[in-house]
Amino acid sequence: MMLRAGTVTLFDAAAPEQYKWSDRTCGWIKDSDLKPRSRITGETLEITYTGSQGQARTTFMVSGMDSLPPQVTVTGLRVTLDSNAKEYSKLSLAASFADGTAASFRIPLTAGMKTYTPQLVFRRTKEPINWRTLKLLNIDNDDPDLKLQIRSFALDTLNVELESAVVPVLAVRRVCEVLPVAPVPGQGLAPWTRFSDHQVIPVDESPLQVELSYGERELLISVRSEFETPPRAKVSAHDGYVFTDEALELLFSPWRDNQKFMQFTINGAGAVFDMKRDFDPVAAEVIYNRGWSLPHRKSLSYQDSVQSYSLSFPLSELGFVPSQERFINFQAAHYYDRERKHQTLCWNPTSRFPQPRNFGVLVFNNTPFGAGEINITRVSALTQPRNPNYLCFSFVAECTALPAGDYQLKLFLTNPQGALLSKSLPIAGGGQTTPEIHIEAFRQSGFYSAYLALENAAGDWKMAAVNYNYSTPLRDRFGEMLLCPEPKQMQKKDGVFDCLPGISVQTSADATDRTRRTAEMTGAELAGFVHTGGPNIVELSLQPGLSLPAEGYQLSVTPAKITITGQDEAGLYRGTRTLLQLVKSQMQRDAALKIPCLEIADFPDLPNRIFRICHPRSRRFKVQEFRGVEYLLNYIDRFVADQKYNVFQLDITGVTRFPRYPAFNHPEDDLYSLEDWKRIADFCRERFIEFIPALPAGSHEGWLLNYFPQYAMPGFSTT
């Protein structure tokens, strides 16, 4: 990676010694023998292919992206190359990121050495791309005859002013070091806090001591709790309400996502309640799994007014490997009856129990970290006024009494979605230091947890952890130029097209009837926003030789006129939708409206773009008012046609009046007639939309059973 003004170069064939890449066949595809062969020729990387089937991949390694200064923002990816591909055939790119996400891009190739802005076609996560975590770029190809000449990969950047705001810390989490030795007094959780009033109990006054250690396969926990008489233990059944007794409760969250956890509660008689709060992909919701059990070994005793527990848990069952994950979230509590001289205690202060965001942290070291402390003294949010998605958190740490030496400052950030982001920074020890570390995050409001660890030369950690809330200010986007869907190519230019003199939508003398109809419809729609019939021209035409895919179009706005050229009739109509969006996005009805000059080339990725809805009445919902044909036509115009969908499917069960089959008619009178559906179909057809009225049958489409209950499956009412 090389940073220059306005550009981050990821690969430059003119200086190949600075970059790394590799070629391979995609062996995970059955019988794939297609393999790339790359070589530097002049100032390009030439890639040809051997083999006949499958897929080949050339991978470019990227490093150093996390060192970009916070004020540098990435605005897009650029690829400069030439190829022998057919016009507008697509080249696939895949990007992999250190945060575990990926993104797929496509380039519609044209002849000659050109610079392309790849189109994002797939990304599983909803979060925007964090280019600072980019680690790999892959070129994937399944065409044996393709020949590529790559000059460069680069990221466009901007240096922008950052706005900084201090984020208040909600809570400081307690942290405990756990070592691989037998538990000894003093090596444990402290201090303890009264659950009722959050009063901190001094260590020498605490009735509860909990020591922890770990072995190769187990987490060991030793507990001593003072009770003047044996603790109440009435529950004996497994998974009974043990927590109503004077019980010990342990909670583990190796996921560190502030959502999932494991609960283990045990009373003085050894009865256990265990449960896992997890996400069930089948139910598609968070569940409390009481059928789950946590394997363990236990030894309990009551002697000399002390209840003792010796517990061990397999690390594999906790889903945690100390040498890899290094820390987990953990909470412990012990219940005492109100009549006792002690009150219920918990380790990490919390107002709700259990709540993973209020767990403490266990850090697993091989040897004691030794001298030195770390605290998070300030959290700041850095934002860019012109980029609504940009957010960078800055953490200032105070490191004191550190012995001289080299350290790594490691940051882990749990965002509101439960994802764990990470970054590291080398720092020098010796006395007191106040390092600052930045990490980019998707800009979203919600609850965050930050873990900041110092790693010494031995690989042991000292950690501080805090919770905070971040609220994203609402952005006023009134009057912005927002086009949906976003055009494939758009280049803004100087100047404006002035609508003040009035505009006229025109076609050529030999235009088809359909083109004239598109012009007529466009003129009528523009009349609601600007004066029409004036000298300024909007010219519509067909040009099948544009070499664009079906439904493609070009739109050009100059100070003199606006030109919309369609690859076909449907493409011409889609181009007029973009023009209307340019007019409407300014959110004003103004004769002096000005449209910015630009060039747009656009076409759909999918031949069928389906918009499907169910009429509310089709599911027997009671609606306050009936929406007639005019409402549906307006809805189709705004949300289907203007958004460039070309298939409209509507579930019409229970909302259609069938003259020949009155048994299917809804008991109320306000139904759509067959003539209404014909009118809607004609309306869609005129806008290049296929209308598909749906009457589902079978399976769980129980609407038929409202009319023919005798066809229900035995024992079922809706099947």
* Amino- and carboxy-terminal Cα gap: 60 Å
CATH first level of the largest domain: Mainly Beta
Number of helices: 5
The portion of residues assigned to helices is under 10%
Indicate the mean pLDDT. 89
Largest sheet, in brief, is:
10 strands, mixed
Q: Which outline best applies?
A: globular
How many beta-strand elements?
Answer: 46
Radius of gyration: 33 Å
Residue stretches low in confidence (pLDDT < 50, at least 5 long) are none
Bin the strand percentage: 35-45%
CATH topology of the largest domain: Immunoglobulin-like
What features would you describe in this structure?
With 719 residues, the protein is mostly beta strands. The chain has 5 domains: 2-159, Jelly Rolls; 180-364, Immunoglobulin-like (Sandwich); 373-470, Immunoglobulin-like, CATH 2.60.40; 489-602, Chitobiase/beta-hexosaminidase domain 2-like (Chitobiase, domain 2), CATH 3.30.379; 610-711, Transcription Regulator spoIIAA, CATH 3.30.750. Helix content is 8%, strand content 43%. It is built from 5 helices and 46 strands. The strands form 8 sheets. Strands 16, 17, 18, 21, 22, 23, 24, 27, 28 and 29 form a 10-stranded mixed sheet that branches. Helix 4 runs parallel beside helix 5 (674-686). It starts with a strand and ends in a 25-residue tail after the last strand. The model has no long low-confidence stretch (mean pLDDT 89).
